[in-house]
Amino acid sequence: MQFFTLAISALAAASAVVAAPLEKRAGGDGQATYFYQNGNPGSCGQYNSDSRPIVAVNSAQMNDGLCGKSIWIQGNGKTIEATIADTCPTCDYGSLDLSTGAFDQLSNRDAGMVPITWWT
């Protein structure tokens, strides 16, 4: 009987771990463009240089909880890591605006736009 009680307790504990909610991750598919900081803080309130790999997330997907989070961007056969620091009010759902420091890691600026997939 004691073994049965222990087994049931172990199963209950295991199911509680499995039932724990997973953190919802942001991400999507879209286009990457680039922007210049011009000495302004982003919507997250931080000043950054153009060379720092940061991104502005489209308005539809941006929320305060994303500020400062790492983001991985895949495009042009490359994957880079950057930091979420701003909102892009003109970007379509799934698209990002990258600092020149981030965009330069994916493509030549002459391209202007690169198809991407991204996630946090």
Textual characterization of the structure:
The structure is a single chain. The protein has 120 residues and is an alpha/beta fold. Helix content is 20%, strand content 34%. It has a 6-stranded mixed β-barrel. It is globular and about 30 Å long. It starts with a helix and ends with a strand. Residues 1-19 form the signal peptide. It comes from Pseudozyma hubeiensis (strain SY62).
Summarize the structure.
Keywords: Signal. This protein is α/β, with parallel strands linked by helices and 120 residues long. The chain has helices at 2-18, 100-106; strands at residues 27-35, 54-58, 70-75, 78-88, 96-99, 114-119.
Helices and strands in order, then pairings?
Layout: H1 2-18, E1 27-35, E2 54-58, E3 70-75, E4 78-88, E5 96-99, H2 100-106, E6 114-119
Parallel strand pairs: 1-5, 2-4
Antiparallel strand pairs: 1-6, 2-5, 3-4, 3-6
Q: Strand order, main sheet: write it out.
A: 1-5-2-4-3-6
What is the helix content? 10-25%
CATH level 4 superfamily: RlpA-like domain
Tally the structural domains: 1
Rg, Cα atoms, Å: 20 Å
Ranges where pLDDT stays below 50 over 5 or more residues in a row are 3-11, 13-20
- Measured by DSSP, the beta-strand proportion falls in 25-35%
Shape: globular
CATH-defined fold name = Barwin-like endoglucanases
Number of strands: 6
Return the average pLDDT rounded to an integer.
87
User: How many helical stretches?
Assistant: 2
* Biggest sheet architecture: 6 strands, mixed, barrel
Structural class comes to alpha/beta
Report, as a whole number of angstroms, the end-to-end distance: 48 Å
Q: What CATH first level would be assigned?
A: Mainly Beta
InterPro entries: Expansin_CellWall, RlpA-like_DPBB, RlpA-like_sf
Signal peptide: 1-19
Keywords: Signal
Organism: Pseudozyma hubeiensis (strain SY62)
